[in-house]
Amino acid sequence: MKHYPYDLRDLCPEKLEALHTKNQTKPSSVHLSALRTAKCLFQPRETERWDTINAVKDGIKRGNTIPPLLVYGSARQPIVVDGHHRLAAFYEVYTQDHLIEIRWAHDWEHAVHATVHENQVNQAAVTDRERTRYAWRHLMLDAKRGQLLADGDWKLSKAETAERHLISAAQVGNFRKELNRLAAALEASPDHPLVQRLRNELSFNLDLEAIDFATFLRNDPLGLTDTQWSKGAKQCIQGFIEGVSSSTSVLADEVERQKINEVKQKLTAALGFDRWAAMGNEAVLSQAIMEVLPSGKREVVWEAMAGELDPAFVTAFGEAVLDGELYDDEDDSLTA
């Protein structure tokens, strides 16, 4: 089995949008080795379907024309939006320097839309559950980008959101019902420990007297972006609502523990494969470090990792990130 491209985890949509806008060349083909995936953004399927991969492989061997992959992002490292099964088949058949035909999504909205819609026209259609979970995740990504709400109201209508993800308007209503419950609890609980901690973290850069709903969702202290619909998301929201009772301290401790574990996983994923050969280390590490530093939990994470990483190395890396030494606005690469 040949190695598939390194999947970019925790990829920032805003940076990807900027790279796509900056990309003026948009070539019609690239080497197989240049292609990357970002399943967290553009893959609603939860498992690969090997019957589809094998069918593509057979088609290649018979000389059939294989449709180009739909991609997004930079010319140097295009992100596959639609065509993950074809990409997997290519890695089984071709060498790294083989030229792969591609076509480009127009913009971010086109890429998100196509991820589901283009999969419905072939045999590997996305299931109802996969579409629903994908829709929830992108709803939360919209919130983190400040694109969910406008002046306290929903930016997209139920019908627009339903068409975007090929789900029912009633399902969109279920999403909104849970988020409205969260908004009401947030308004009624300004002294909730989780809210106070978020306010303290944000106060390093912002003079906030209160946390509004849009700010709460944008910073996502409940981790809703990475929580599956529906049971997981509802439990997170219910846990926050119940946190105003005597169980508040227990909830806060649990959230803190989950956050430390999340950072531990990100750091391990970034350096565990290969310190610098793996894709996306810079983005994953810097995001993890930035998440830890405001709450003063860096030492706790080092202890939790107990020898899995060299604390001095990561500390030096974090300081370099904070000093801006590792970022170049003219660089369109996603690698470290």
Overall number of strands: 7
Helix amount = 40-55%
Number of individual domains = 3
Distance between the termini: 26 Å
Order of helices and strands: HEEHHEEHEHHEEHHHHHHHHH
- Overall outline: elongated
Rg from alpha-carbon coordinates: 21 Å
Please tally the helical runs, counting DSSP H or I stretches of 4 or more residues. 15
Largest sheet: 5 strands, mixed
Strand portion: 5-15%
Average pLDDT confidence is 77
Spell out the blueprint of helices and strands.
Layout (H helix, E strand, L loop, with lengths): L12 H10 L6 E3 L4 E2 L1 H4 L7 H12 L7 E5 L4 E5 L1 H10 L5 E6 L3 H10 L10 H17 L4 E2 L2 E2 L3 H8 L3 H20 L4 H10 L10 H7 L11 H12 L5 H25 L8 H12 L5 H8 L5 H12 L14
Parallel strand pairs: 2-4, 3-5
Antiparallel strand pairs: 1-5, 3-4, 6-7
Question: Which terms would index this structure?
Answer:
336 residues, alpha/beta, two-stranded antiparallel ribbon, disordered C terminus
Description:
- This protein folds into 3 domains: 13-126, Conserved hypothetical protein from pyrococcus furiosus pfu- 392566-001, ParB domain, CATH 3.90.1530; 129-245, no CATH class; 255-322, no CATH class.
- Helices cover 53% and strands 7% of the residues.
- The protein is built from 15 helices and 7 strands.
- α12 packs antiparallel against α13.
- The longest helix has 25 residues, at 248-272.
- The chain is elongated, with a radius of gyration of 21 Å.
